[in-house]
Amino acid sequence: MRVEWDDQVSKKRWASIVRSSENAYFFHTPAWAEILQQTFGHTIATRIYEVDGAEVLIPMVEKRTALFRAYASVPHGYGAVFGAEALSPDTLSRIFRSMVGGRSVGFALHLPPGATIPVNGDRMIRRNSNAWTSAHLLFLDRPCEDLHAGVHREIRRQVRTAEKRSVVVEHPDGIEAYRAFYSLYEQRSREWGYRAPEYPWTLFEHLCRCGAPHVRLRMAEQEGTPVGGLITLEYGDTVFCWGLAVPMAYRHFYPTHLMFFDLIEDACERGFSCINFGASGPLSGVRTFKERFGAREVPTEDYHVLSGIGNLWWPLRGYPLSPFL
Fold first, then answer.
1. Where is the BioF2-like acetyltransferase domain (predicted)?
2. Staple partner for 109: which of 54, 173, 222, 303, CB 3.0–4.6 Å?
3. Would you say residue 181 has pLDDT above 70?
């Protein structure tokens, strides 16, 4: 079997494959890779493999240190192996092994719910299973009124409370609105105990400037004061909840409840078939909250492919490539 690959993939060809594929998210597009490159300095390393004439696309980026490099598909979101359904486990193993060795110490792959790959027990391909390998999905397979009626009565009561307290949801799209969101995000990060937010302001600046038409911002306001924000990524038939910022001081206004209600109504009106609320991890309260909106938990697949050096350094969390591995 002949397996060849090319990492000089045109954006047009890349986008065309993603657009015609199932389980595709904004994370898989050239636009997301460019946002990561502009924000974090990652190198775009997407490859197209040709296997006996069939094409396999793996969107990914590369991170380097002075000595080594690692690949990820895709950081801060989902990765993919488009065309994997046509591969045998042995062929996929050959593809993954081509990514590691020498200075390349590892490859990380986090698939979206519903996506799977064939594996053959290759010891270099390690499947991870933990509290984060799942997502909560709300399928929009009923009229919006029925979806709202299926929301837990306590959530519906809190939505009415938010409305009585003059909270409204706006859909702004300018850079100043993203600055308002980031201010809320900074407040919430301090409440989590972080000295600085996990994501820098430049990421949100690039989302605003480069994410259209797939990036959407909602801001909950109480008499003109921002009290909560939600960033969603829209692609194909799915809306993904990527960023939520609601400081503790504003929780009594129930902005999250109102923004989620607005999200469900808007997604139904615009013809989406699913809302992905993301992973809940070990946070049982977050899991319960999503399920009260009617979402159900769906497993995801998460893999690491490690070279010998990657296996040695895997436990060293201070190692600069460990977030990729």
1. 152-279
2. 303
3. yes
